[in-house]
Amino acid sequence: KAGVTQTPRYLIKTRGQQVTLSCSPISGHRSVSWYQQTPGQGLQFLFEYFSETQRNKGNFPGRFSGRQFSNSRSEMNVSTLELGDSALYLCASSSDEDTEAFFGQGTRLTVV
Amino acid sequence: AQSVTQLGSHVSVSEGALVLLRCNYSSSVPPYLFWYVQYPNQGLQLLLKYTTGATLVKGINGFEAEFKKSETSFHLTKPSAHMSDAAEYFCAVSRMEYGNKLVFGAGTILRVKS
Prior knowledge:
The complex is a heterodimer of chains A (112) and B (114).
Chain A: E1 5-7, E2 10-13, E3 19-24, E4 31-38, E5 42-50, E6 53-57, E7 64-68, E8 74-78, E9 87-94, E10 102-103, E11 107-111
Parallel strand pairs in A: 2-11
Antiparallel strand pairs in A: 1-3, 3-8, 4-5, 4-9, 5-6, 7-8, 9-10, 9-11
Chain B: E1 3-7, E2 10-14, E3 19-26, E4 32-38, E5 44-50, E6 56-58, E7 64-68, E8 73-78, E9 87-94, E10 103-104, E11 108-113
Parallel strand pairs in B: 2-11
Antiparallel strand pairs in B: 1-3, 3-8, 4-5, 4-9, 6-7, 7-8, 9-10, 9-11
C-alpha cells in the first residue's frame, strides 16, 4: 500500500509569488490535513479536508488556502509569499475508522 | 482549548540507558494522545497512540507510554536506548469532535551517546 505522497519535495520561490503544493493520500483515506513546521513555531495545523469539504481550519491568514478533489488528493496554495512562509509543509491522511494520521515526507519551501 | 507541553527540548542519554520523554496535556475532556518520531528531513512516524482502554500503551521499536489522567501526562519510555533512537519526538493530542486535527508539543530532540 503506497504511503502519503507529497510533491514537490523541495521548492524555492521569491517573495510575492504564489505556490501550490500537492498531496496524494493513502488509497481509501478521505481525510487530508496540512501542517506547517518551522523552527520557531513548531508544528502548526493549517486545515483538514474530508470528502472535498474543509472540516477544520487553523489560525493562518487567508493567503493560505486548500482544496480537495473527488479522488481525495489535496492541494494547498499560498499566495503573496513572505519570507516567514519558509517551512516544511506536511500532509497527513487518515481513514474513517482510525484516529491515526499518516504523514508524507513533506515539501520544503524556501522563500527568498 | 487543547495544549501539549513537552518538558525538555533536548534530552541526552547513554546507549543502553532508560529513555524518558515527558508530555503533559491540557484538555477539558479525555483526548486521544499520540507520540510521533521525526528523523532529519523526514515526515512524522507514529510510535504509539492512546484512544481508550488500557492506559499502558506499547508501540514500535520498544517504546511505551502510560496515560495518567490524574496527572494529565503521557510520558514516553524505552528501557534501553539505541543509537538509532536519536531523533526528534513529538507528543500530540486530538479530540474526536475536532476531526483529525492534531495539536503538537514543541518537540524533544533525543541524543544517544555511545
